[in-house]
């Protein structure tokens, strides 16, 4: 376990941390804020959010504030990256939030909050990303970090996710395939959420 020097848990933080570890071992995905509230006997989410923030600051968990399902245990994340579902490399498909299994890439895992997606389709074949590959994605925490030409996982609410090249001109986003058989997806910036940028491709031969 890697923690900040001298950062020990309070009784309340330790209780929540222990419960989260037990829950994730049993169900293979992180609990919701409401489930944590019920387990700790609390009626407000504020104490849970405070404890999660302290657990993150002390190096016990990785967590995107406000998104409980992004929670990971630091001393266990090195054992594998959570596979969060599938991403379309053709049209748009439904996405899934529950962790299904872990992809073991501990030797290359250096950054926090990395997640894996299984590629479904051939629209990125000319970028050497084929159907059945695993793509390792780094979360986009700041939209200003996006650059034209990046390969991203994009979520269109109500429709699904897709893996494409990202291009922005004004308020319009163009999600472009690496396969001439597919037309670009043109959409207003307010109608799309960029989940992550491509970090690596994992292919089992």
From TrEMBL:
Superkingdom in the source lineage: Bacteria
E.C. number(s) listed in UniProt: 3.4.21.88
Site (Cleavage): 89-90
GO BP: DNA repair; DNA replication; negative regulation of DNA-templated transcription; proteolysis; SOS response
Pfam families: LexA_DNA_bind, Peptidase_S24
Swiss-Prot/TrEMBL keywords: Autocatalytic cleavage, DNA damage, DNA repair, DNA replication, DNA-binding, Hydrolase, Repressor, SOS response, Transcription, Transcription regulation
Active site, renumbered: 123 (for autocatalytic cleavage activity), 164 (for autocatalytic cleavage activity)
Residue range(s) of DNA binding per entry: 33-53
Sequence ranges assigned to domain LexA repressor DNA-binding in this UniProt record: 8-70
A GO term, aspect molecular function: DNA binding
Domain Peptidase S24/S26A/S26B/S26C as annotated: residue spans: 82-198
Catalysed transformations (reactions): Hydrolysis of Ala-|-Gly bond in repressor LexA
Keyword Nucleotidyltransferase attributed: no
Complexes and interactors: Homodimer.
Primary role: Represses a number of genes involved in the response to DNA damage (SOS response), including recA and lexA. In the presence of single-stranded DNA, RecA interacts with LexA causing an autocatalytic cleavage which disrupts the DNA-binding part of LexA, leading to derepression of the SOS regulon and eventually DNA repair.
Protein family: Belongs to the peptidase S24 family.
Protein name, UniProt field: LexA repressor
Native source species: Prochlorococcus marinus (strain MIT 9301)
Taxonomic lineage of the native organism: Bacteria, Bacillati, Cyanobacteriota, Cyanophyceae, Synechococcales
